[in-house]
Amino acid sequence: MRRLIVSEFVTLDGVMEAPGGEDTHPHSGWVFDYMSPEQGQYKVEETLAAETLLIGRVTYESFAGSWPERTGELADQLNTMQKVVVSGTLTDPAWQNTTVLTGDAVKGVAELKAKDGGPILVAGSARLVHTLLDHDLVDELRLMVFPVTIGAGLRVFPDTVRRTPWRRVDSLQFPPGPRVDVYHRA
């Protein structure tokens, strides 16, 4: 069984929306005040260790609109790795090595996890992450928490009455303040 890893940039108050300059939030780009080479290298290594990138359509459109034009180790990996987009509207993805998972997302992701292969990495994709968490498909959470609050916005965890225990297995601190907490299902 393949491991499904959700890796998110998140504010101290739990918002994951618009970390990189997207136009969906008035405080878009909130990660830029806290970037460091160490943090960048962590994201490169995390992406290199994954075999498949699983994302929703909105994140796909953002990534496909910027990564194909970039160069470097991270861009090379993102551009060449297998990408699976969960979408009911995307039909002809132009980004290299991209397929679309249509229909029942829960069933499709469960089947993807059951195949042979390396880790599946999820980035962004709030709606998809909520579905994955609600259906116990997430094996590991990597939350890069930034020391800033921005109020309203899309959050990592869905509104639910479910209780899901997690166990913190690692914590890494980066200058000038972001911290990654890694959790496994308890």
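(ticket continues) Second input and output from the same batch:
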Amino acid sequence: MLLHFLLADSELAWVRQDGATLTLRFSAAQAERRESSPAERPVIGYALGVLMRLQDATPLPADSEALFGRVESGVIRSGSERWTGCPLPFASPAPVQLELVLARHGPWQVAASAFSVGFEGEPNFRESWAC
């Protein structure tokens, strides 16, 4: 099973700093599931407990307590590349800039020397039944 994490319409639970690492926890991460081939039509759903870790993050968010809620849009930039999501799990040793627009907070940006995205516990996916 191949999962692709999508920033838009994900739910950010919290942002925390531990030393030089900034961790974002998504309580419900919007995701697409493909069984084996990128040519297959994806199944839309969500994954629970997804963590994004940003190494050497700057600037550090002074108002990180306010950073939660629905992500209206998001972009990960690395060099000339621009992604609105990434494989799940995923790690990149390259410098990145994360830009999120949160429904409750508005735009927020942070740069990092590297980032990774993975599950807090066991990998999971739940199909959306929304119409």
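Agent notes: The CA atoms of residues 80 and 96 lie 10 Å apart. The mean pLDDT is 89. Closing as not reproducible unless the customer responds.
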